[in-house]
């Protein structure tokens, strides 16, 4: 093994732990917080879209239109670099959470809306026939069934968000990709360091995909065949 190869191996071994720690301490929490808040926002947006209340539905449609029609990177820049012009200065982590939450909320609201609308009207009518209100029918009958339908697409959305958090590096959040950039600046080995961080993202995604498959199989037990 020549000296150059030994040097690269040493750099990769030394950089692996700092990047993994950044992934565990920043990337994963950023993903979990943003996704959880995003799901709440997505559900509220989906319910607003199907509520039949025109002003509420119009606001929800406008929000989805704006977020889905503009790049996530631009949204992060507006939140972190643009809002200070209006006197609103946010912590970089908070800015990232807001940006990712808005993105998750907009995209997943369409998943939830489609899932709710996929439940047959007969389910609503059956609930009404036994004296349930619309809210009770939604909570006890419709949403539990819709939740099963949303598992695969929401799982994919969560895995995508793990990778999208790398964009937080552009607003100086010290997550996994930002850490890899710092390592590159110190070692001048962009090829191998970026391959290494890509492998770590791949490991995270593989574990999450396995968990998603397990969850899907669990829900399949309740599906009539």
UniProtKB/TrEMBL annotation:
Membrane topology note: Multi-pass membrane protein
Cell compartment(s), UniProt: Cell membrane
Molecular functions per Gene Ontology: L-cystine transmembrane transporter activity
Domain of life where this protein originates: Bacteria
Cited PROSITE patterns: ABC_TM1
Positions of the ABC transmembrane type-1 domain: 24-212
Transmembrane segments: 26-50, 62-83, 191-211
Keyword terms of this UniProt record: Amino-acid transport, Cell membrane, Membrane, Transmembrane, Transmembrane helix, Transport
Any one cellular-component term (Gene Ontology): ATP-binding cassette (ABC) transporter complex
Similarity section: Belongs to the binding-protein-dependent transport system permease family.
Stated name of the protein: Cysteine ABC transporter permease
Species, as recorded: Aneurinibacillus danicus
